[in-house]
Amino acid sequence: MKFTRILGVAAALAAATAVAQEAATVTPAPEQAPAPVVALEADNTPATWGDATAGAGKAAACAACHGLDGNSADPQYPKLAGQHERYIARQLALFKSGERENAIMLGFAATLSAQDMRDIGAYFATQKVVPGVADDSAIAEGPNQGRKFYEVGEKLFRAGKSDGSVPACQACHGPTGTGNPGPAWPSLGGQHAGYTATALTAFRDGKVWGRDANANAIMAGVAANLSDEEIQGLATYIEGLHNVADAPSAEAVASAEAAAPAAAAPAEAAPSEDAPAEPEAAPQG
């Protein structure tokens, strides 16, 4: 009787084990068809002529450093107003490809298409650069002693060096510094002296923008024979350089003076901020 009972218990345990093993068996669900993969294509559509109206909106991100109208306040950032469309588009493309190194500009240019670059260039090309004032202080010593800084720059810009080691800047950039939009030689007139001096120093040290067939090594060769003093002279001359036709006429200045609020006159102790400042002398292109 006991033996029979033991067999019954054993059979029950075996059955329970079999049921447990059967319950633990996992049947995999059928695999779903994979989601279709769609390649994200870059916008490599060939660019056409830039649209200044479209570029105005796209250039809003540039305003923090370069100014809303392209006239930057900080000399470490170049003025873009009046710059040629193709030149700006080329520089943005170089930033995007890493052929011109600048971590900040790489971030801005990375998302731009070729058409975006042309549109931004077209917008800034329609803006008017505001020139600065050239440094007319005299050089205290050295080969240019007694000459004014801008006079040293003026000679180099217009005639280069007599030994032929430095060509005249105006050969490519024009007598008034407006450049040449055909080969995309940049406009220089009115540019911050600090920015120009930094760029010329980098060129003198061998800096080249672009690689291989896309490289432009012209300026490295031009600047190789410039001294620090000559770079400073060129930079300050270029800052004050502008087309005399763009300067306000005497009539416009007189009209602005006449339009000054008459109520400001009694406040002799605190001159009106609206009163026009006395114009300083600057070289005229």
From TrEMBL:
InterPro entries: Cyt_c-like_dom, Cyt_c-like_dom_sf, Cyt_C_IC, Cytochrome_c_Oxidase_Subunit. Residues 248-285 are annotated as: Disordered. SUPFAM superfamilies: Cytochrome c (SSF46626). Residues 50-128, 148-242 form the Cytochrome c domain. Keywords: Electron transport, Heme, Iron, Metal-binding, Signal, Transport. PANTHER family: CBB3-TYPE CYTOCHROME C OXIDASE SUBUNIT FIXP (PTHR33751), CYTOCHROME C4 (PTHR33751:SF9). This is Cytochrome c4. It comes from Arenimonas terrae.
